[in-house]
Each structure stands twice: as C-alpha cells, then as structure tokens.
Design a protein that fits this description.
By secondary structure, this protein is mostly helical. It is built from three helices and no strands. The model has no long low-confidence stretch (mean pLDDT about 85).
C-alpha cells in the first residue's frame, strides 16, 4: 500500500514496523513516542546496525504515524456542545 519504498530503506521500515507494533499507548489510546532507547534495544536485539540518519528516519516515521493517529482520534472525539445562554 502507498508509494514504492526507496531503495535501501528496508532496515528502516523493518525497525519502524516492529517498534510501532510494540509501542505503548496512553489510557486514552494515544500512541506514545518511540524513544532512542527503543531503537537502540531493537538494533542490539536484532543485530541490525542503523546509521544515525536511519535512526532519524525511524523517529520521523514515528512522528508522522502519531500525527495521523492524533487526527483520527480527534475526528472521532465528540464535539463540545455549546450551551445556549439562558438569559432573557
């Protein structure tokens, strides 16, 4: 789904996908940011070294993912109802 991925970006997308699947969510369902320590642990566990620019890319993808989710949650949140002024 979506446009083709740039050549050489497989490790970035793999890291992002696996970290995204394991992320924590707030009680309200808001996805919590992926932290540098999460990326570091993933790289160590999976034995996949990422270049600093690739780590920046993973964190940028995370920011976009969270922005999309925030917009989705905002769209489903009930709107505040304006109360009419009861003054005559």
């Amino acid at each position: 789904m979506g446009p083709p991925r740039p050549a050489g970006s497989d490790a970035v997308w793999r890291a992002f996908g696996e970290l995204d699947a394991q992320r924590q969510h707030s009680d309200a369902g808001i996805p919590q940011p992926i932290q540098h320590r999460d990326v570091e642990a993933w790289c160590r566990t999976m034995r996949v070294p990422l270049h600093p620019a690739e780590i920046v890319a993973v964190l940028a993808l995370d920011g976009e993912r969270r922005a999309v989710e925030a917009a989705r949650l905002a769209a489903t949140r009930p709107r505040d109802v304006e109360l009419e002024d009861d003054d005559p």
